[in-house]
Amino acid sequence: MVSKRKKKYESGEGNRYVSRKTALKMLQLSLKDFRKLCILKGIYPREPRNRKRAQKGATGIKTLYHLKDIQFLLHEPIIWKLRDYKIFAKKMGKARALRDFETIKRTLENRPHLTLDHIVKERYPSFIDALRDLDDCLTLLFMFSTFPSLQHVPRDQSALCRRLTIEFLHAVIASQTLRKVFVSIKGYYFQAEIKGQTVTWIVPHQFCFVPQSTLEVDFRVMSTFVQFYCVMLGFVNFRLYHLLNLHYPPKFAVSSADATEKTLVDEEAFVSERVAALNVPLFCTGRDTTAEEEVEIDQFPMIEDPTKLEEIKQEAEKVKKHKTLFKGLKFFLNREVPREPVVFTIRCFGGEVSWDKLLFVGATFDESDESITHQIVDRPSLGKQYISRYYVQPQWIFDSVNARELQPVEKYFLGAVLPPHLSPFIDKTREQYVPPEERALEDPSLAEMNPEKEETEEESETDEVEKKNESENEGEMLRNEEEREDGNESEIHEKDKVREQKKKRMSVSMGVVAREDPAEKKRQERQEYKLREKMIKKKHRNLYRSMMKGRAERGKEAWLLQKKRRLHDEQEKAKHKAEKKEKRMKAAADT
Amino acid sequence: MAAVGTGKKRKFIVSGRNEYVPDASEELVDTRHAYQDEYFLTSITNDDDSSDEDDEELDESGKNDDDGDDEVVFEDDDGEESGSEDSGASSLGDEITGDADYDSGSDYSEYGSEETEHEEEGEVEEEEEEEEEAEERKNDESSKGIKVSDKSEEKESAQSKPLFKLKQTTSSKINKSSTKLSSTILRNGNKKNVMNELAQADENRTIQQADDEYKSDTSDEEDIRNTVGNIPMNWYDDYKHLGYDWDGKKVMKPLKEDELDSFLKRMEDPNFWRTVRDPQTGQDVVLSDADVDIIQRLQAQKIPDANFDDAAPWVEWFTSEVMQTPIVRVPDHKRSFLPSRIEARKVAKMVHAIKMGWMKPQEEKKKSYEPKFFMLWQTDEGVEHMRRIQNHIPAPKRHLPGHAESYNPPPEYLFDKRELKEWNKLRTTPWKRKLHFIPQKYNSLRAVPAYDRFVNERFQRCLDLYLCPRARKMRLTIQPEDLLPQLPNPKDLQPFPTVMSMVYEGHTDMVRSITVESKGQYMVSGSDDLTVKVWEISTGRCLRTIPVGGVVRSVSWCPNQALALIAVAADRKVLLVNPGVGDHLVCSKTDVLLEEAPEQDVVVSERVKTAVQWEQASEDVWKNGIRVIINHFKEVKQVAWHGRGDYFATVMPEGQNRSVIIHQLSKRRSQVPFSKSKGLVQCVLFHPIRPFFFVATQKHVRVYDLAKQELVKKLHSNSKWISSIAIHPGGDNLLVGTYDRKMLWFDLDLSTKPYQTLRLHGTAVRGVAYHKQYPLFASGSDDRSLIICHGMVYNDLLQNPLIVPLKRLSNHEPYNDFGIFDVIFHPTQPWVFSSGADKTIRLYT
Known about the structure:
heterodimer; A: 3-stranded antiparallel β-sheet; 9 strands; 55% helix; B: alpha+beta; 5-stranded antiparallel β-sheet; 26% helix
C-alpha cells in the first residue's frame, strides 16, 4: 500500500491563512466591495506566527486573512446586496447618460438597501461585548454628527448620527454613569462606566470639520464604518433605554407649556430639538429606577481580607456620593460657554442647569433667578453680577468631577488665572513624574503649604540673611572646636611618644569610629549590581537591555519635566518678586 | 404664428418710419384724404397689375371681414407707378444727386403694409422688389415729370376710389402665400402735387438714402442694378467690374480716388463724415440723419426706433376663446369622447394590486430606509449560538490622554524651544516623535479651537481597525530586576579579597608573570627588564634580583616542597633558579641535587636534541642562583610544572610540531609528546590529580591522557583566541580566558562546550587563576581590572557549580593599553596578586 505523499503547506499554518487576492477570488468581489464587507463584518487581517509558512513560502509581506473568516464571509447575505448595488449603479449610470429621468426615479426608489441588524448580533453576541467596543463607535459618530453634507456623507447620515449620540447622552444622564471628564486640545473626553465597562469617547470642539484632501482622508471608508456603528448604537441605545425604563424614541414626560400654547408646525422637529437640549428628563415607563438602586445590598464576607472589603465599601460610597455631586446646585450658563458638554456634565451629576433663552431651546429658568448658585462664565469680565451666586469658569465643573468633590471656587473665579487642568486618566502606578498640582490633590496638606510659602517668602528673604549670619557663626564655632581638638590630639601624640619612649607597655587606645561613606557605599553597591547584571542569561540579555533603556528614558523624561517645572517656578518667583518690588518702589515714590 | 410675427413686424416698421412719415403726411393730409389716422401706412404696389391683386384681395378681405378687426389701410394705385415699367436700371448716384421729387411718405409706408401681406419667408424679398421698383419709378418721375402726370391722370379714376381694407390678422393658413393685403393710399395725380413734392426734394433725399441703406442690409436681391446676387464681393476684387446689370453689361468699378481727391473731398464736402461706400455698387452713399440716428441708437444699445413704445399694452391677436366655427372641418375622433377600455383595464389592475397590498403608496416606501431598532439582546450576558468570526481578537483601545493633552496643562508639559525643534525635525518620520501633537495652553475654554487633525486621526483609527493585522501578544509584566539571576549576596560569600593592601615596586618594566611559593611566604616575578625578583609577601621587600639576560615571559615555582626551585622562561632559555630564600636546608639540598647532572642512559632522539639542550649553569651565573639552563630552539612562552614537581612543560608557540616539550627534572631529560602540530599552542597545563595534560591552541583546549597517550577531549571555546587557562584544584573544572573578553568555565564532566561564559571584562582577559582552598577565582584583563568571583564546585555531581562575581578591583595604572598580565592567588590566604604593565605587583586582601 502506497500512502499518499504529503505535500508542503497542505496542513498547518500554510493552510490556515489565505492572501487577500485569494480571498477576493473566493468571494468573487471587487476590492472595494471586499473592503466594505470587511468593515461591516469586522473581518481583519491576521498576523501569522510564522509568516513564511503562512504565505506558503512566498517572500515579502502579504495581507493574510484567516481562511475560516473568508469562508464565513462566503455565507453572508449582504454580498448579494453588494452585487445588487453594482447593478443598481450600472442602471443609474445608463439612465443618467440617456437622461431618462423616469427610469432614474424608479431605480432610485428601488435601490438596494443594506440591513445590518444580524451583523450587529453576530459581531457582538452579548450586550456587554457591544459596550466594550463602544469607544470608537461613539467617537466617530460624535464627529460625524457635526459634519455638513459631503460627497460621500449624505445629510441624513449625519443627522442620524446626531440623533443617536444625543439619545446616548440622555441614557448616560439618566443612569448617572459618567465618571471622568477631560478637556483636551482635541476635544472633550468623557468616560462613563456602563454595566462595569468603561466607555470613553471624544466629543470634538466646535467646528471640527476641516475639508480634507482626498489623499489623506477617504470619507467613503469612514462613512461605511458609520453606517454600521449607527445601527449598533441604535440597538445599544434601545437596550439602555429599556434597562432604564425609558421610552425608546425619547419622549417627554409632560409636554411643555410652549407646546400647548403654540400650534406645532412640526412636532417631530420640536421634540428632537428639545431632546438635543439635554435639559428635560425623559418619559419613564414603569417605576423609577433610581429608587431601586437605593436598596441596601446585603454583604457577605466573600472576600477574606477585611481591609480589602473596607476599601471596596469606601469606593462604593465614594461613587455614590460622586453621582450626586451637583445635586441641589443651580447653574446658569453664559452664552460663550460650550453648552452641550457642560450641560451634559452637570446633568450627569444631578445639577440643574439653564441658559439664555435665545441661545437654544430648553432653557428652564432665567439669569435673574435668585436661586442660581453658580453661573458659568468664560469671559474676562461681566457687567451685571448677582451677589447671590458664584461666577466660575467652566473648568471648575470638570475639575470637580474629576476630583469627585466640589473644588474650592476661589481659584476659578471670573477672570482668575486658572490652575492647570489635569488628566484624570493617568495611571499613577506607571507614571514617574507627578506634577505638584496632582500631588496637592491627593494630599491637601501640600496644597496648603504652597500658598503659605508664597506669603512667607518675603519674610523668609529677610530671615535668610539672619540665618546666613547664624550659620557663619556656627561655622566659626565648629572650627574653633576642631582646632581645640587638634591641639588636644597633638598633645596626646606627644604624650604617647613620651610614654612609648618611657615604657613599652601594653595599652588600649581609643578606637576611632569608622564612618561609612554613603557615596562610597553606593558606589560599591552599584558595582556589585553591575557585576550581577553581567550574569544575565544570554536569552534575556537583549530584553533586559531594552527594558533598562526604556526605564532610563522614562526616568530622563521625568527628570526633564521636573527640571522644566523648577525653572518655570523660579522664573515665576522672580517675576513675582520684581513686580512686588516695583509696587513697593512706586508706593515709596508716591509717598 | 406667422401672423403674430407679421403683426409684430408691422408694428415695428410702422413706428420705424414714423420719423419721416409726418412731414409727408402733413402735405397729404392737406391735399389728400382725411382718412389717414395715426397709423398712416401707405403702400405703393409695384406694378400695374397690383390693381388686379387688389381686387382679389378685396374679395378676400371681404371674406375675412369678420375677423380682420384692426387696421384700416388705404391703398392707392399710383399712376406714377406705371412709369416704373420704363425705368431701367438707374444708378444710385442719380438718386442721390438727382433731385428726386416724389411722395416719399406714400412711398415708404408701403413696406409695412406689404410685409403683412407676405408669408414670413417670401415677405422680405417681395418687399425689396417693390421698394426697388418704386424707387426707380420715382427716379423716372423726376426725369419725366410730364409723362408721369399723364399716367397719373389716366389712372386717377381707378385710384380715386379708396379701398378700405380690413386686414385679417388671424392668419389663414391655407392661402397665406397668395394673400396680399396691400394697402394703398390715394394719391393725387395732380401736377401740382408733384411739383410740391419736387420742391421738397431736398428733404426727401434723406429718405431715399435711408431707402438705400435699407436695401443694403436686407437679404438677397439688394441692389437690382447689380445682378451678381448675394455673394462675397471680394470675388470681384481682381476685376475691373463689380458685376452685371440687367442687360448683362458689366457694372464697372468707380474710378479709385487718389489721396488728393479724398483729401479735397474731406475738406470740401460737409457730408464726408457720413459718406459710406456701398460694396455692392461701389458707390458712395451719404447717410441720412435718420440713419445716423439709428446707428447711434444701435450703438447705445437702444431700440433703433425712437418712437417705439416698448411699454405699449399687449394686443392679444390670438384669443384663447374657442371659435364658434372651427377652422378644421374634420370631426373629432370617437376616442376623444369615449373612455378607453385598455386604460380602464390597467387602472383596475392597479386598484387590485393596492387592495391586495402588492402596491404601496410612495411615502410608505421612503420611510422604510430609516433603521428600526428593537431589543437585540434580551440579556446582558446571554450569548446566542451562531456562526461568528474565527477566534476573534478585539481591537485594542486607544491610549487615554495624559496631562500634556490638556487644554490647560501644567507649564512643564509645554514644549521648550529645543523640544519644538526636535518635533519639527521629525516631520518626515512622525512615528518617532515623543508626542503626536504639540501641547498647547489656552487661558480659557472659549479660546480653544477645533483640533485640525481630528478627522485625520479618526480616519487613521478606522484604517487600523480594518486593515491592521491582529495577533495576540503576551505583554511582559516583569521588572528588569526579575531577569537578574538569583545569586547569593556577595557579603555571604566572604572571605574574598576586597582591598588592595600592598604594592610591590621595583621592576623597571612590565611584569609579565608572577608565582607564589607553595607555603605562601615568597613571591617571584619576572619582568621585561630582564630580571627576576624575589619578594617577601608580608613586607613587600625585594629579597633578590636575578638578572636572567632575557625577557621573562613566565616564572613558575616548583610545587615540590622539598625543592626551592623556580622555572624561569627567558627568551629561548628556561632557567631553573634556586632563589635561596626560605628554609636553608631545602635550599642547600636543592643545590646539592642540581650540582651534578645525572647520567644519561637513554639515547636522545635527534628530534629532541635539536629542540632542547640541557646545560649546567656556569660559575658566574651559579652565584645568581641559576642552577640549570635548558636551551630551546625557539622562544619559550610558558613554563608549567606538574603537581609532583618532577616534570615541567614548556611552550614555544613558534615551535610547530615541537612546540610543547615535557622535561623531567630528575633525569634531565626532555621529550616531545606530539608529533603533529595542532595549531598555535598558547599554553599548557597539568591536571592536578590525574595524568592529564591540557593543551590550549587558539580556539580549542585539548585534553590528553599522558598514561594512555591519547586525546581524551577537545573543548570548544567558541572564541577567537585563548589567552590563558587555569584548572580547579578539584580537577573537574577548567577556566579559560580569551582575548575576546570572555571567560569560559568548562565543566569537564558535562560537555565540551563551556558551562558558562562570563563577559565580565571590557577588554581582553590575560590571566585567570583559581584559589587552591577557597572557592574563588580571579581574572585580570587589559582594562586594568581584576575581578574576583565565587566559583563553588559541589561534590554532588548533580549540582552545577555556582558562579557569583564578587568584586571588581581596578588599581593598576594604564600603560600602553595593557593592564594586568598575570593573576595568582595566595596558596593559603584569600589573597590575590596581580602583576601589571605599570611595573608593579599588587596584593589584594
